[in-house]
Amino acid sequence: MDTRSPRLPGTSPLLPAALLRRLEAAHAAQPLMARAGEAAARWAEQLRSDSARPVLVLAGPGNNGGDAFVCATRLREADIDVVVVSRADPARLSADAHAARQAFLDGGGAIAADIPVATPWGLIVDGLFGIGLARDLAAPYAAWTATAQAQARRDHCPILALDVPSGLDADTGRAWAGALQATHTLTFLADKPGLHTADGPDLAGAVRIAELGVAATAWAAAASGSPNRAASTADDAHLLPPGRLLAPADFAPWLKPRPKNSHKGRNGEAGILGGAPGMTGAALLAGRAALVLGAGRTFVGCLDPQAPAVDIVHPELMLRRGEALLATPLSALAVGPGLGQDDAARRDLATALGLAVPLVLDADALNLVAREPQLAAQVAARNPGRAPTLLTPHPAEAARLLACDTAAIQADRIAAARTLAARFNAHVALKGCGTVLAHPPGSDGNDPANPDGLPTAWAINPSGNPGMSTAGMGDVLSGIVVALLAQGWPPGPALEAAVHLHGAAADALVAAGTGPVGLTAGETIPAARSLLNRWVGATLPLG
Ligand SMILES: NC(=O)C1=CN([C@@H]2O[C@H](COP(=O)(O)OP(=O)(O)OC[C@H]3O[C@@H](n4cnc5c(N)ncnc54)[C@H](OP(=O)(O)O)[C@@H]3O)[C@@H](O)[C@H]2O)[C@@H](O)CC1
Ligand SMILES: Nc1ncnc2c1ncn2[C@@H]1O[C@H](COP(=O)(O)OP(=O)(O)O)[C@@H](O)[C@H]1O
Ligand SMILES: [K+]
Asked: What number is the ipTM of this complex?
């Protein structure tokens, strides 16, 4: 029996559009559009800022527009005044969307060809485009999204997006030109990766899922090919497998309370290698994070010969030169915070890559690997079982590693993280808004053989905020990861937990008024400690 508390939120799947299409096809006999429009109307009723004002409903030329027509019909039935704007050609609508439009007209509704300029709205419903959009918004839609945005600001009213905000790519979180920024998004059947990374969180606002009567687990059958749709091998090869929206339940099994009979030797030796001249602060931040997040002993090796011999804030840290650190027995090592890229950095990194310990590579360690094919080969050759590698690039570092530009990384962050994981046989956290995690084939229950040759398991972290966009945050993350590794966490859960914990700590600080403006990396360290202890407490058996 599982004695763990259910208080930690559970795993929630993120489905790519191709899989949602399969799911839709497998449930074609069910009135999905009617349910989507009905669910939208129910939330719309609650969201109206002023019940005396009408609701503006924008209906597009596809099935997202069909959802909008159903929503408008239901709102009218509830005696709510609606203004529907649509230029959809009825002859080109799907059968469902055509029926939804006709039902709206049959019920006495009227369709306007443009957004009225003078009407103050209580709510704007965005049913222009959903998962079918794959290009910049064309006329008149780009003008409509701009007008709707301006009128929502003018009227202080919310914007409810149906399925996804129009113009947001549901798979990648990339915004096409003319995309609409919603305050709320009701997404259908299942949650979608694009709502949680890159531009997604800014455009989607608060996300709710309407499952439309389709069991949350039905995607598993759809992923392996729906009975209603013969899945070709070529299709499968390009099908992004489902991912997860990261939550503490994903790593709860490793949130173990310490035994009473504990001693520091049980909690591991964490090492940080970095701190070149002018950048010793980065290594100290990482060291302090490793110490405070529970490593039994923390060693910081600095390349700067003038580096301090003691950290006055945390004299518990053991400071030494880089070469001395590499000769110290360690349970886990992070290389990169303030490392620099000179010959000494390169030499020490090459030595570190030969150590049979879990190794976190960040910052200049990643830049050196990107620069030198020999180091890259050394990374890829490491044994993911005995000596796992964890990479924590931000988008610019990922671009250097994949020899492309940052925009290409941001255009498809999931693909970038998965490609890095496969190329370097490593666990990867591609940082930024909606950090994407990917794991090497065959690791931690990961499927060894995905048809596209890329690792299967990926996740998006929803915690964190723009207050974290400040120097030193990455160093703190490296320190948290190495602390968990030193305490015996497997690499995949360690990386996921560290990323989620660090973001959640920053969120707690912002909620308490510390930031987002002026939040410092150092402040996230004790906040992460409090949260980690709280999470460990929440997994204790009940009673
Ligand atoms: N999946 C499900 O399970 C369920 C799905 N449901 C709903 O269906 C939605 C998906 O519907 P969908 O496939 O019809 O696509 P949608 O997003 O309405 O847009 C396609 C239309 O837009 C057009 N178009 C595209 N880009 C354009 C542009 N830039 N500028 C101008 N036009 C552009 C495109 O034209 P085309 O590219 O063919 O020329 C086509 O006409 C989904 O998000 C959800 O809301 C629910 O009802 C229930 C369950
Ligand atoms: N807008 C944001 N939303 C969520 N997390 C963010 C955001 N900006 C930065 N972060 C997080 O803060 C950390 C910044 O790391 P990094 O860019 O390496 O900083 P540095 O190199 O300055 O230490 C990463 O964990 C990243 O995911
Ligand atoms: K929409």
From this structure: 0.93
